[in-house]
Amino acid sequence: MNTPIAPASAPPPCLLDPGYALTLRPMRYPQFYDMYRAAIRNTWTVEEVDFSGDVNDLRQKMSPAERHLIERLVAFFATGDSIVSNNLVLNLYRHLNAPEARMYLSRQLYEEALHVQFYLTLLDTYLPDPAARQAAFAAVDNIPSIAHKAAFCCKWIDSVRQLDALDTPQKRRRFLLNQIGFAACIEGLFFFAAFAYVYFLRARGLLHGLAAGTNWVFRDESCHMAFAFAAIEVVRAEQPELFDAGLEAQVRAMLAEAIDCEAEFARDVLAGGIAGLSPAQMRQYLEYVADQRLRQLGYAPQYGAGNPFPFMELQDMQELANFFERRVSAYQVGVSGELRFDSSF
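^ that's the sequence the OP posted. Answer follows.
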């Protein structure tokens, strides 16, 4: 009598499998659901940010070179988070196939909209002249240093926009490069450089409203990066063959290009000359942060740069370490303590 052969069991589903998984039970990636719940517990509003002292700083305390820095910075902020939102909707939500992951991305999309509102309020406060505000919003077309950063972002959005399904290793690597580009280069490098300018000014006693709001934006962006890197680690565990030498070489080239884009922006931002902050120092800081991102991706650092900004070393690691344990009211009402920018999230 012949013994029937049991059918081969189907391989377990992977995060990048095509389709739209719908059920949360059994939950495959509880860490993503925990990130979603933590984000919900920590909500802030733009109305809590007090910009009243900033207006006086801009009018009475800041030099023309410092005002140029701020004008360029808010011009970048005007569209930066909108670009990130587009990538969430067009690419990440579409291809990260787990409902708990999509729950977190839905929350992230809300937070990006909140950041857009914060920067809109910032522009309305700092640039009362309608023509100046319009110029800031048009910076992605009219200011080369900002246009180059936007082009870098859009290149990686377009790289996977036409992919209907991640059904080959080549397509999955293209998607990974998009996610790594937005986590490591855009949120993890472009935004971190912007935060450094804000904290440089705060160290000089300027623009405390901007710094307070930036604390909250920084926390959100740190969590966005943490989610993205966690998703990358899941894919690495499920499909380690995707992480070959070719992918690593592309990641390193991508980071080098991002550093060049941001260094160009630094030369523009600091064109008027600001004591204590130079384009060379900013490039060193970018290389320092890039090494942190490489480590987060499991790669060896490339640049060996140290942090050139003593004011950044004053950031208190405990503030971020306790982020998820803090009471909601502490997060919504005020910021007590600092943050540091050399941490792995």
